[in-house]
Each structure stands twice: as structure tokens, then as C-alpha cells.
Amino acid sequence: MNPNQALWEKGDFTRIAATMRESGEALVASLGITPGLKVLDLGCGDGTTALPEARRGADVLGVDIARNLVEAATRRAQAEGLANCRFQQGDATNLSDLADRRFDLVVTIFGAMFAPKPFDVAKEMVRVTRPGGRIVMGNWIPNDPTLVAQILKISSAYSPPPPDGFISPMTWGVESNVTDRFAAAGVPGDRISFLKDTYIFNAPLRPTAFLAEFRTSYGPTMNAFDAAEQNGKSAELQKELEALFERQNTSRNGSTSIPATFLRVTVRV
Ligand SMILES: C[S@@+](CC[C@H](N)C(=O)[O-])C[C@H]1O[C@@H](n2cnc3c(N)ncnc32)[C@H](O)[C@@H]1O
Predict the structure, then answer these.
(1) Most Cβ neighbours (<10 Å): which of 20, 82, 196, 202?
(2) For a pocket test of ligand 1, which of 8, 85, 147 has the largest count of ligand atoms closer than 8 A to its C-beta?
(3) What is the CA radius of gyration of the chain?
(4) How is residue 156 annotated by DSSP?
(5) CA neighbor of 51 nearest in space, from 64, 43, 61, 37
(6) Cα–Cα distance between 37 and 33 in angstroms, integer?
(7) Which conformational region is residue 125 in: left (phi greater than 0), alpha (psi within -120 to 50 degrees), or beta?
């Protein structure tokens, strides 16, 4: 199986996504979605942003490489009776079953950044967007001091070295890389804008219990614990992540609320 698919099907990302709904809604509220807008939500997970897009009347296709998440998104949309929202499995590096210029808006929040071959991903996103349309990406930022960048940094320190030629997903959080990738897809730099934005993870759990969700449900953290266990270092990894979660938590009432900074990229095609 495609290792990227295996990584995301290994866990149950819905458990983490459940803590990201408010920020997903807020992000979608800022996109200026109008009824009938044709939206591709790429790396849609279980629909954190796709469902709010559909609630605003957009005609939404969600694409994700993980079959379990496509099923979860479909169930969530059906439960809400959202007929203008459907989901299918697909790979951001090759969207060959989607026609050129089909979408007004491509949204990919912490989604396409995780696909390999970033130049192919940029090319595919540009290809399926109509001229005058937009691409909006949310990308975690390498070495940022906030939650997700730190989880991924700590996790990678306990994981085996990646294979030769591996390009870190975090490279999408560097403006010059984003510009180069879209330039290669034919979009000049003056059509790309950048903004630092914030997602807030809200969980009705103490930080250590929230970390347990990552340990059992979030593919990259699960892999790090698997590798750490083989080296007898899982207690060390647990301690490092616990300190991170406790330090970043802003809630004082026994629950967890952790802000995380990301790079928001808007591309005018
Ligand atoms: C961190 S989750 C974010 C999900 C969703 N966008 C959200 O905001 O909750 C990353 C998602 O990207 C998907 N993904 C990873 N690589 C992909 C690829 N090559 N093509 C399509 N989806 C991919 C994963 O399956 C996963 O659902």
C-alpha cells in the first residue's frame, strides 16, 4: 500500500479532528463562500472544513487518501442531510479523475502538505482550479514553537530516518518553497499571499489524556511511539510530549485548549 495512505489509515484521525471543529468553522467563515461555489476540499479528513463549506451552500467534493476518513466524512455529511457534499478517495499527487479547471476554490487545511511530491501536488491543484479561482492552503510551520510543529519535530527525533529523497511535509510551511512550487505550476509569486493564522485544539480532557489520543490515533505520533518502543525510549518520548502539552495548554478548568500557529497560503490562479 502507498505508505502515505497506510500512515493515515493506521490511526483514527477523527478523534483529533473532533477537537478542531471550531477553528475549521472559523476558517471556512473567512473564505467568502457563496451558494453554488464549486469547492474541492483536498486531504479533507472527516470533513472538518468540507461540512461547513457545504452548510454555506457550496457544491463540495472532498478527496482524501484514507478510506476510513472518506467513510467518516460521508457519514457525517449524511447525518446532517447535506446533499451538496460528497467524498471520494484520491491522491493529491495525481487527481487524474478530476477535470481541468473544474473548481472555483480548492481548500486544503493540513491536507495536501502531507502528500509526497509537492511539485506534483501544486501542479494538480492549479490544474483543477479555474482561472480566476483560488487555492487556500493551511500548512504547519517547521520549527514553530506551537503544538503541531513541535509534536512532529519531537516525533521525528524518535523515528527512523526517512528514505532517501523524502521531502518533509513541513517544507510547505516555508514561503519560498510554496512560491517555487506554484511558480513551477505556472503561477507567479505576485499571485500568492501569506498570513500567519491560528487553530485552537479544544478537548474536554486534561492535556495528558489529550496526548493519549495522539498516541493511539494520530499516525505520525503512533509511528514515533512504535519506533521509540523498539529502542526502549517510549517513556522518554511520552515525557517530552507531556511537557509540551502541559506547557501549551491555556485552559485552567481541567480541559485542554491549545493554540497552534500555521501558514495560510492564498493563491489566485
Ligand atoms: C492532518 S489531517 C487533516 C484533515 C482535514 N483537512 C482537517 O482539517 O481535519 C491530514 C489529511 O491529509 C490526508 N492526506 C495525506 N496525504 C494525502 C494525499 N496524498 N492525498 C490526499 N489526502 C492525503 C490524510 O489522509 C488526512 O486526512
Answers:
(1) 20
(2) 8
(3) 18
(4) H
(5) 61
(6) 7
(7) alpha
Distances (CA, A) of 162 to 71, 133, 175, 212: 30, 36, 23, 25
The pLDDT tens digits for 21-67 are 999 999 999 999 999 999 999 999 999 999 999 999 999 999 999 99
Residue 83 grid coordinates: 446533499
How much helix, strand and coil, in percent to the nearest 5, is found in the chain?
Answer: 45, 25, 30
C-alpha cell at 35: 451558494
Instruction: Judge if the beta carbon of residue 48 lies within 6 A of ligand 1.
Output: yes
- Distance (Å, whole) CA 104 – CA 132: 8
pTM above 0.90, yes or no: yes
Average pLDDT across the chain, whole number: 96
Please return the burial class of 164, using the count of CB atoms within 10 Å of its CB with bins 0-12, 13-18 and 19+. Answer: exposed
Q: For a ligand 1 pocket test, name from 19, 44, 136, 223 the mutation site with the most ligand atoms within 8 angstroms of its C-beta.
A: 44
